[in-house]
Design a protein that fits this description.
By secondary structure, the chain is mainly α. It contains one helix and no strands.
């Protein structure tokens, strides 16, 4: 029906959706940060092991 538009959500519904979106985005950013730190630590450990092996 081209003449009808969707009803706008209520103010509290919009606030809840924005808060939920913020929580989800924060969780995703935190997950990416934890993954990056884990990869960095693994790289440092591997580099240390390889350097120790080459020095012997």
């Amino acid at each position: 029906m081209p003449g009808r538009s969707l009803p706008l959500p209520s103010g509290s519904g919009v606030i809840a959706a924005v808060l939920l979106g913020g929580v989800v985005l924060t969780a995703l950013v935190a997950a990416v940060a934890v993954t990056a730190v884990s990869v960095a630590v693994a790289a440092l450990v591997l580099r240390s092991l390889l350097t120790t092996r080459h020095q012997r």
